């Protein structure tokens, strides 16, 4: 996923290098305890490409308490530090409370805390550079001292000898610092620090020390999300001995227990307050006989909301940790996996990463700050934010409909609808976090998320209100060339950048509106958007077979190079090779245009086998994980390996999936070949390992690939279980010989969502040679609009 501003390019050498999982036939590692937490490794993806963080968070938690190895973007490459932590680094700048998991752009990193020892006058106030850490408050560390597991992170800071531990609840994080015996203990709270930092990012901030020792504060930042406000409340297990509030703009310290000008909304009870754009707090605790615990709650509403969130989850470090790890055991335990040890670790970690977002944004009392920057009240649901929808509509949200209780998806849909109604533009979110719209990426992909939920039977939201919101988003002319799209049937490149990609993505979204409208009996809307679903044809050059950008006069733009990748060009984070396959609602129609099955298979092979050695994509950060022109590190390619099934050669899909899994995933810090993008890369692996994938969300079908697990048992939202059982799984048997559903042969190459939700067993029998007869007939192929307008 790209940012709306240019980031420093990161080379492709690591991403393009093949990374192999140990063989499927490796000796089985039978779990000695049914605890899924032991199989999760939060370090996976913390290498330069994955952009995951290793710190502590509850499932979908508002707080992601994690170390930042570098939050000074002018000094180091921002892109590799999008989540704050990059595994190759050797110093930690501090521990902040908010992070994205796998985003292609950075922000957050709020309220950075760092312990220090020694005399108060010697506490350093600036982070210093990573290559000269002694000049600042950052400290060296060794990976050997780190522990990372769901809900817990720990590391020893080598320069001070402080053992730092982190855990988190839904709306709070808890630090625990064990200082060397006899050392003077301090914490530095830096309100200046921020991921993707630059001068002037902090618009305003404040600190407020209360008589009971509670420290509250806030900051407003301009970054990826403009005018983002966040508040905190902090309490300590030991009393403050002294403190200093500093505004580094003024270069003057305010020290002592006196009350200057009060913060807005606060009373004269303040012991100390400070407003400014570059605030820091030095907090002095003297020598301590026990570890120092620091409870920190966040709120997007106000400081009182943060205090209330602090009270909503009482308990010390161990209590919060135990509660959060129990939540993780329950969430991860809904999918029980038996697979070779490396694959099991990759899969449980992928499931873990899939459950970090969309994150909770409303306070414990239901209040939240919406897209209009006003405070609203969520009634009967938890408001969630962090929607990377261009990425996550594909597999992440479909996965949540299976592995989470129904209320999770219902909360998502209600949050999307509330955001639309509170939006100044009156449309559904595009890429939202902290309730704020970033306008990043293309499409109106909240639409398929809502339609997919409704068509799967989720009814915990107002369907009419939802359909109205979907239509409003699809007809908002000022957005992304939609006015031209509605007028011409395509987006013209001389009016709007990335026009070819926008045309086909809009057409898919339109198809999901038609599907939901039809199911609701709104035939007028269904017919209107079913017609728009065919607009993909207007941007395909039938003569060459490529998706291309048209100009307003109807001609295709020239010159044309199907391998060219540039931001602001005809395509979004890709080129003609990837985007010419994006017609998920009508692959049969596309294949007919391309000349039939044989020509399609030949072109798919050409894509995977393309020699890219003479191409340089280093200017495009998200183009990683290349297999020819297949780019697994970015989402437009994610369905392509399954398209052999639509062309009647499912054994070729099985081959390609083996190639992708072996080269793009492994249980190591560099184990993700591209940004995890809020769980999409991980959700792809979970689905694929189970043997099926939602190529077309909204069709209620999953395309069968091949499994990578011996056995998996999924507990569904309604309490039923669906089991995947694989016979003869090994490196020497990579092909599906036969498939059975509930003991009966399954000849078609897809299963329905209803069949999964009914419970039962999907059994694969693997063999050494391809079965070239299974799933090849026209009637056995998955849904396409041209051949099956009304799927089950």
UniProtKB/TrEMBL annotation:
EC number: 3.2.1.-
Pfam families per the UniProt record, alphabetical: Glyco_hydro_92 (PF07971), Glyco_hydro_92N (PF17678)
Record region (Disordered): 773-792
Enzyme class, broadest EC rank: hydrolase
Biased composition (Polar residues): 783-792
Leader peptide range in chain numbering: 1-26
Protein name: GH92 family glycosyl hydrolase
Superkingdom as given in the UniProt entry: Bacteria
InterPro entries reported in the protein's UniProt record: 6-hairpin_glycosidase_sf, GH-type_carb-bd, GH92_a_mannosidase_put, GH92_N, Glyco_hydro_92, PNGase
Molecular functions (GO terms): hydrolase activity, acting on glycosyl bonds
Swiss-Prot/TrEMBL keywords: Glycosidase, Hydrolase, Signal
Occurrences of domain Glycosyl hydrolase family 92 N-terminal (ranges): 39-299
Domain Glycosyl hydrolase family positions: 306-767
Keyword presence, Chaperone: no
Organism listed in the record: Novosphingobium organovorum
């Amino acid at each position: 996923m790209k940012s709306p501003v240019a980031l420093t390019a990161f080379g492709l050498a690591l991403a393009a290098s093949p990374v192999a999982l140990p063989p499927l036939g490796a000796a089985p590692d039978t779990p000695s305890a049914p605890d899924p937490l032991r199989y999760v490794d939060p370090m996976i993806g913390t290498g330069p490409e994955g952009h995951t963080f290793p710190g502590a968070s509850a499932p979908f938690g508002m707080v992601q308490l994690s170390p930042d190895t570098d939050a000074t973007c002018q000094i180091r490459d921002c892109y590799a530090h999008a989540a704050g932590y990059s595994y190759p680094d050797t110093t930690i700048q501090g521990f902040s409370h908010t992070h994205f998991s796998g985003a292609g752009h950075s922000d957050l990193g709020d309220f950075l805390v760092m312990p220090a020892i020694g005399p108060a006058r010697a506490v350093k106030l600036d982070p210093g550079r990573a290559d000269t850490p002694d000049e600042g408050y950052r400290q060296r560390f060794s990976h050997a001292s780190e522990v990372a597991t769901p809900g817990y992170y720990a590391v020893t800071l080598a320069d001070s000898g402080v053992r730092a531990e982190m855990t988190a609840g839904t709306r709070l994080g808890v630090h625990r610092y064990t200082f060397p015996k006899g050392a003077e203990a301090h914490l530095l709270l830096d309100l200046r620090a921020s991921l993707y930092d630059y001068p002037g990012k902090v618009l305003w901030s404040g600190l407020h020390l209360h008589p009971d020792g509670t420290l509250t504060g806030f900051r407003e930042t301009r970054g990826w999300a403009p005018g983002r406000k966040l508040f905190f409340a902090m309490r300590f297990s030991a009393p403050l001995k002294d403190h200093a509030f500093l505004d580094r703009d003024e270069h003057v310290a305010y020290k002592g227990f006196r009350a200057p000008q009060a913060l807005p909304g606060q009373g004269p009870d303040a012991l100390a307050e400070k407003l400014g754009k570059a605030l820091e707090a030095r907090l002095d605790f003297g020598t301590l006989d026990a570890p120092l615990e620091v409870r920190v709650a966040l709120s997007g509403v106000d400081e009182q909301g943060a205090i209330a969130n602090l009270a909503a989850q009482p308990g010390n470090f161990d209590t919060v940790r135990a509660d959060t790890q129990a939540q993780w055991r329950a969430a991860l335990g809904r999918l029980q996996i038996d697979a070779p040890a490396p694959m099991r670790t990759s899969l449980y970690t992928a499931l873990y990463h899939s459950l970090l977002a969309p994150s909770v944004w409303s306070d414990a009392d239901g209040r939240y700050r919406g897209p209009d920057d006003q405070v609203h009240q969520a009634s009967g649901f938890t408001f969630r934010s962090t929607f990377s929808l261009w990425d996550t509509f594909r597999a992440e949200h479909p996965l949540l409909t299976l592995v989470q209780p129904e209320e999770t998806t219902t909360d998502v849909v209600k949050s999307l609808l509330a955001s639309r109604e509170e939006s100044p533009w009156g449309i559904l979110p595009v890429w939202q976090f902290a309730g704020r719209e970033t306008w990043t990426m293309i499409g109106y992909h909240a639409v398929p998320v809502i339609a997919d939920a409704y068509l799967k039977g989720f009814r915990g939201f107002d369907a009419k209100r939802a359909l109205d919101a979907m239509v409003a988003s699809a007809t908002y002319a000022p957005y992304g060339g939609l006015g031209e799209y509605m007028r011409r049937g395509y987006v013209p490149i001389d009016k709007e950048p990335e026009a070819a990609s926008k045309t086909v993505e809009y057409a898919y979204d339109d198809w999901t509106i038609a599907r939901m409208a039809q199911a609701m009996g709104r035939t007028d809307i269904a017919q209107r958007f079913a017609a728009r679903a065919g607009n993909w044809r207007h941007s395909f050059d039938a003569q060459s077979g490529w998706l291309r950008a048209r100009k307003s006069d109807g001609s295709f733009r020239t010159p044309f190079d199907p391998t060219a990748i540039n931001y602001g060009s005809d395509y979004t984070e890709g080129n003609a090779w990837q985007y010419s396959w994006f017609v998920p609602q009508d692959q049969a129609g596309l294949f007919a245009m391309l000349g039939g099955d044989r020509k399609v298979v030949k072109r798919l092979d050409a894509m995977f086998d393309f020699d890219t050695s003479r191409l340089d994509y280093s200017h495009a950060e998200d183009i990683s994980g290349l297999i020819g022109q297949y780019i697994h590190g970015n989402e437009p390619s994610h369905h392509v390996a399954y398209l052999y099934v639509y062309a009647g050669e499912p054994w070729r899909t099985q081959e390609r999936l083996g190639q992708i899994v072996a080269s793009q995933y492994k249980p190591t810090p560099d184990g993700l070949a591209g940004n995890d993008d809020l769980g999409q890369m991980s959700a792809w692996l979970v689905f694929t390992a189970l043997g099926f994938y939602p190529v077309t969300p909204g069709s209620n079908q999953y395309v069968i690939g091949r499994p990578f697990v011996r056995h998996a048992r999924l507990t569904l939202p309604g309490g039923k279980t669906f089991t995947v059982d694989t016979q003869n799984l090994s490196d020497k048997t990579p092909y599906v010989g036969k498939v059975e559903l509930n003991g009966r042969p399954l000849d078609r190459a897809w299963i329905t969502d209803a069949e999964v939700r009914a419970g039962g067993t999907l059994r694969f029998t693997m063999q050494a040679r391809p079965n070239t007869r299974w799933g090849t007939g026209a009637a056995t192929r998955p849904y396409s609009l041209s051949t099956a307008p009304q799927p089950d």
